[in-house]
Design brief:
The chain is of the alpha/beta class and about 325 residues long. Helix content is about 40%, strand content about 15%. Strands 1-2-3-4-7-9-8 form a 7-stranded mixed beta sheet, with helices on both faces. The protein has a two-stranded antiparallel sheet with strand order 5-6. InterPro entries: Diphthamide-biosynth_chaperone, DnaJ_domain, J_dom_sf.
Length: about 325
């Protein structure tokens, strides 16, 4: 919340301009609390957003830091990709200087095709021949059409998942940005994760705000289509092509956008599915989903070989 290219800014949640005075900001906060309080007919999710917006900009120090990081000040932070010290064809996040542990095996470029598409569309939107010194400047991103912001938000979400999975260790293998069926551009998987706890299809989502579940599908203001059904369908196509069986599917969302840290929703198209907060991803992948069968020894090696031979990247 507030950090996503898709989400409303703290100022927008409080319905004030970015240059509002401190006194007017405080008055706006109190008004929004009354308007959104559940006891007076307001929306509970929006009520929480109002409180978190105030936490971000309610004091001079917090407001200055927020402005720097979200494009309301001159030295704003960036949405640009982090530098990598990887070698070869696999993706790796930048290693910490004090961390010498082996990383998970990684193949593909998380968020890569979305960033490439974002850059192409951003240049077209700004205008051919127009100067574009920084396509990731937060102020520019905030003013861009939603289609562009969604591409960037999804790329950032995939990269966040990739960093977490990389730290699981050498017992895990992960493939990023998979074309489930090269003939159908709509069938894709953000990640496939193979480890001792099972084989999982993973969707890294960011819809710019809170989501909830209804009839085994995600709903919310920013949700379009049927993300869970599409994830299960893509996993089935990959499973048939590689002659493997997925243990389950996992939807990873920003912590602030889910009501429960881990919510296992049963089976969708025969596949166990869970919707989880990003901070729990490492724990869930180490533990596995309920009822999922552990994979080890020669079987793990065999599944990895089959996927290596069949996976095609976007």
């Amino acid at each position: 919340m507030f950090d996503s290219p898709l989400s409303a800014s703290a100022y927008e949640v409080l319905q004030v301009a970015a240059d509002v005075s401190d006194d007017d900001l405080r008055r706006a906060y109190r008004l929004r609390l009354r308007q959104t309080h559940p006891d007076t007919g307001g929306d509970a999710a929006l009520f929480v957003q109002v409180q978190r917006a105030w936490e971000r900009i309610g004091t001079s120090e917090a407001r200055a830091a927020y402005d720097r990081g979200h494009g309301f000040a001159a030295d704003a932070a960036q949405y640009a990709p982090e530098p990598s010290d990887a070698g070869g064809t696999g993706w790796r996040p930048r290693a910490r200087a004090t961390d010498t542990r082996p990383r998970a095996r990684s193949f593909g470029q998380p968020g890569g095709w979305r960033r490439e598409r974002y850059l192409t569309l951003m240049r077209e939107w700004v205008g051919r021949g127009a100067e574009l010194p920084d396509p990731y400047d937060p102020a520019l991103v905030r003013s861009a059409p939603r289609e562009l912001k969604r591409l960037l938000a999804d790329a950032l979400a995939e990269e966040a998942t990739a960093r977490i999975v990389a730290d699981l260790g050498m017992g895990y293998t992960v493939w990023h940005d998979i074309a489930a069926d090269p003939r159908d551009a709509t069938l894709t998987l953000d990640h496939i994760v193979l480890g001792p706890s099972g084989l999982y299809a993973v969707l890294s989502g960011d819809f710019g705000g809170p989501v909830r579940l209804r009839r085994s599908e995600l709903i919310g203001e920013g949700v379009a289509g049927s993300p869970i059904a599409d994830l299960a369908a893509a996993a089935r196509v990959v499973a048939r092509g590689a002659r493997v069986k997925f243990s389950g599917a996992i939807v990873v969302l920003p912590d602030d956008d889910v009501a429960a840290a881990v919510e296992e929703i049963g089976r969708v198209r025969g596949l166990a599915v869970a919707v989880i907060a990003r901070s729990t991803l490492s724990t869930v992948l180490r533990r596995g989903l309920s009822g999922a069968r552990d994979i080890g020894g020669n079987e793990l090696f065999d599944i990895r070989t089959r996927l290596q031979q069949s996976v095609r990247f976007l």
